[in-house]
Amino acid sequence: MVNRDEIIKKESKYMVPAYARKPIVIYEGKDTVVRDLDGTEYIDCISGISVVNAGHSPERLVKAGSEQLSKLIHCSGLYHNVPQTLLAEKLADLTPSNLTKSFFCNSGAEAVEGGVKIAKKYSVTQGRTGAGVIALEGSFHGRLSLSLTLTGQAKYKHGFGTFANAPGVAHAPMPYCYRCPLEFPDCSTECARRVEDIVKYHTTGDVAAMIVEPILGEGGLVVPPQEYHDLVLKICKEHDILYIADEVQTGFGRTGKMLAIEEFGIKPDIITMAKGLGAGMPIGGYITTDEIANCLESGDHFSTFGGNPVSCAVALENLIYLDDAGLVKNSEKMGGMLMKQLKEIQQSNKYIGEVRGRGLMIGIELVKNTGTKEPAVDETQTVAKNLMKNGVLVGTGGVKKNVIRLQPPLCITEEESQKVLSLLETEFKQL
Ligand SMILES: Cc1ncc(COP(=O)(O)O)c(C=O)c1O
């Protein structure tokens, strides 16, 4: 059997160096625990970036996938297949009642591009230009051409010429209260009001869609106030702008609700999804209304692998399992417990600027000084590195690169959560 060092060495020889990987080779996983090739175990508190919400390889999902693998692996978009249709039916059941029709692809970026594409087509069929799309500063929507244009973080766009420069895209301010010069609620959610100005001054005035993450994931697990969402929805309605909720990262129990839109009472025209939908199988997609869906004609959009029967069979079982096994409820419960205790730790630690999130989507923003809020970038990396040494994997991120991300599988137990908390507390104390 190959060992860890050999794999890492071979990877640097044979693979495009697109990833800054941590020096472990994950070989197997069960529930919340993953194991390195050398047998070292880790509590996984990042879930393959918010993907394995149901945990690593739960038996029911393995069975559903294995059965489908032996029946039919692929048939392409040329023919009907059973799991795809049943998954679309289930999604219509899970989402607000006006959303009825799904399209499946293979990733979050494709889901976003598909969602914006249909919004533009709908707008054109209404006799408009389909020209404008609004996204948020600090957002993340993927790394393809349009999705990278929508992504409101320049650091991902450097060095690629005009690749992330699709026309018609404008960005509205990030609803990031912790770093806003104005004070909420005295600010009257100025960031939401600014959307109106963006329509007026930064677009042709004809905007097909606005895309919003209900909680900004890669931007630093930033939770906009309820009033923000309410006002943006109102502005979109008044300007005939379709509202796309990008639930790629927040979806499927992550925030303590099946979808984060439930938390904020958001009624979108389109929801984009991926990550937690397939529990690790590559699948993405969007769901929309009958009226919007019906603007597409055959051939307008297609994906050879999209709606693949194996991915769909696992995704369908996953949606049933998340509910049956009480994992969405556990996300709310464990998340609430972790948040409460982290806020207590924050009281006596001057490095913790803010603890925020919903359910098991928790961000801890580290600063060198709570007054100046200078981002503690190196310290964030040190904490993550030391946690890994002690058997816990966490993510790091945020627009300032100073946020520890806790996004474990939703099956995390109280005992595991306490272990993670205690290690985190030790690390924060050592800063
Ligand atoms: C909100 C959101 N949208 C889209 C994407 C892109 O997903 P993918 O990496 O599957 O293309 C991500 C990935 O992190 C995301 O968080």
Element layout with pairings:
Blueprint: H1 4-14, E1 26-30, E2 33-36, E3 41-44, H2 47-50, H3 59-71, H4 82-94, E4 99-105, H5 108-125, E5 132-136, H6 145-150, E6 169-172, H7 190-202, E7 207-212, H8 226-238, E8 242-246, H9 260-264, E9 270-273, E10 284-289, H10 290-293, H11 309-324, H12 327-347, E11 352-358, E12 361-366, H13 377-389, E13 392-393, E14 395-397, E15 403-406, H14 414-430
Parallel strand pairs: 3-13, 5-6, 5-7, 7-8, 8-9
Antiparallel strand pairs: 1-2, 2-3, 4-10, 9-10, 11-12, 12-15, 14-15
The structure holds pyridoxal-5'-phosphate.
Pyridoxal-5'-phosphate binds next to α5.
Tell me about this structure.
With 431 residues, the protein is α/β, with parallel strands linked by helices. It has two domains: 4-57 and 326-430, Aspartate Aminotransferase, domain 1; 61-324, Type I PLP-dependent aspartate aminotransferase-like (Major domain) (Aspartate Aminotransferase, domain 2, 3-Layer(aba) Sandwich). Helices cover 39% and strands 17% of the residues. It is built from 14 helices and 15 strands. It has helices at residues 4-14, 47-50, 59-71, 82-94, 108-125, 145-150, 190-202, 226-238, 260-264, 290-293, 309-324, 327-347, 377-389, 414-430, and strands at 26-30, 33-36, 41-44, 99-105, 132-136, 169-172, 207-212, 242-246, 270-273, 284-289, 352-358, 361-366, 392-393, 395-397, 403-406. The chain has a seven-stranded mixed sheet with strand order 4-10-9-8-7-5-6, with helices on both faces. Helix 4 (82-94) packs parallel to helix 11 and helix 12 packs parallel to helix 14. The longest helix has 21 residues, at 327-347. The chain is globular, with a radius of gyration of 21 Å. The two termini are 40 Å apart. The mean pLDDT is 97. The protein binds pyridoxal-5'-phosphate.
